[in-house]
Amino acid sequence: RVVVVGSANLDLVVTAPQLPRPGETVLGEDFRTVPGGKGANQAVAAARAGAACDFVGAVGDDAFGVQLRDSLAGSGVGVRGLRTVPGPSGVALIAVDRSAENFIVVAPGANGAVTDLGAEDRATIAGAEVLLLQLEVPLSTVVQAADWARAEGTTVVLNAAPAATLPVELLDLVDVLVVNEHEAATVAGAASADPAVLLDALLALVPRVVLTLGARGAAYADRRGLRLEIPAPRIEAVDTTAAGDAFTGALAVSWAERGGAISEETVAASLRWACAAGAACAQRPGASTALPERAAIDALHDA
Ligand code: ADP
């Protein structure tokens, strides 16, 4: 079982011939709403990858909240820990032009109200092998969830997205940090084009690090001295949006299926499978709609 404590947003996506400048109005083309938020995306990624998955978070008491709840439940994610709170749901206003350039404004809404974790949430965390966290809900909540997971023997996986520097009280509770190169540089406080340098800097902060490298795959390092580089499957990338969420969700599933243990013998296999999930997501257009089912992950993994 995987539990995600994190964000749910509705993405309001409009396409337009060009993006407006400040004060300008442009006539758009298509409009659609797509469930998003890193927390919800990773929960859906985990459920599609084949795990039982619970989501702890909040939506507003508006129509978007109903849509987000239905979408999570429809993907097979457990929503007993999903609160409905007064006020608006989290939304992302996204405009995309014909060259795929975009601008995005996120209004966190109800995600800011995920501050009241209680005994039921602790029990949900205790019943999971892996707790998956991101940084789109209040930091105090992320720390609380990680603290309970540590006390209950649940493995803590933190995807440090969006990029931020992290307080020691959180770093000390993390079993595995999952970051892309940009997030790695922010967390480490120093950029480098060399993955090995980033991994070394991050190992000073947490015991295990997974660094995603886009089309180049992923790298892993831990304090016991194990270092791995896993190439991504070669694919025709159509849209890499949410590839990181697909990767992280699948990685959590692979570890949950091994009882939350991250062993030297199996970590390479878990990473290879997660890379297949990221690549399978990148083969399809869209964000959460492109998160792959287990069969699609396995097919690319075995190809
Ligand atoms: P993020 O979207 O968070 O920046 P990445 O771009 O590193 O994350 O992608 C996450 C994972 O998805 C990569 O580690 C890789 O396994 C897979 N992936 C992403 N883009 C591609 C691609 N063009 N070809 C193959 N795999 C990809």
Give your account of this protein's structure.
This is Ribokinase. Homodimer. Keywords: ATP-binding, Carbohydrate metabolism, Cytoplasm, Kinase, Magnesium, Metal-binding, Nucleotide-binding, Potassium, Transferase. GO terms for molecular function: ATP binding; metal ion binding; ribokinase activity. Residues 1-293 form the Carbohydrate kinase PfkB domain. The protein is of the alpha/beta class and 303 residues long. The chain has one domain (2-6, 37-86, 111-302): Ribokinase (UDP-N-acetylmuramoyl-L-alanine:D-glutamate ligase), CATH 3.40.1190.20. Helix content is 35%, strand content 23%. The protein contains ten helices and 13 strands. The chain has helices at 38-48, 63-74, 119-126, 139-152, 168-171, 181-188, 195-203, 243-257, 267-282, 294-302, and strands spanning 2-5, 9-15, 31-36, 53-60, 82-85, 90-96, 102-107, 130-133, 155-159, 176-180, 208-212, 218-222, 227-230. Strands 5-4-1-8-9-10-11-12-13 form a nine-stranded mixed beta sheet, with helices on both faces. The chain has a four-stranded mixed beta sheet with strand order 3-2-6-7. α6 crosses α7. The chain is globular. The structure holds adenosine-5'-diphosphate. Adenosine-5'-diphosphate (ADP) binds at residues 180, 212-215, 217-218, 232-233, 235, 237, 240, 243-244, 247, 275, 278-279, 282. Residues 180, 212-215, 217-218, 232-233, 235, 237, 240, 243-244, 247, 275, 278-279, 282 line the site of adenosine-5'-diphosphate.
Secondary structure layout plus pairing:
Layout lengths: L1 E4 L3 E7 L15 E6 L1 H11 L4 E8 L2 H12 L7 E4 L4 E7 L5 E6 L11 H8 L3 E4 L5 H14 L2 E5 L8 H4 L4 E5 H8 L6 H9 L4 E5 L5 E5 L4 E4 L12 H15 L9 H16 L11 H9 L1
Parallel strand pairs: 1-4, 1-8, 2-6, 4-5, 8-9, 9-10, 10-11
Antiparallel strand pairs: 2-3, 6-7, 11-12, 12-13
The protein binds adenosine-5'-diphosphate.
Adenosine-5'-diphosphate binds next to helix 8 and helix 9.
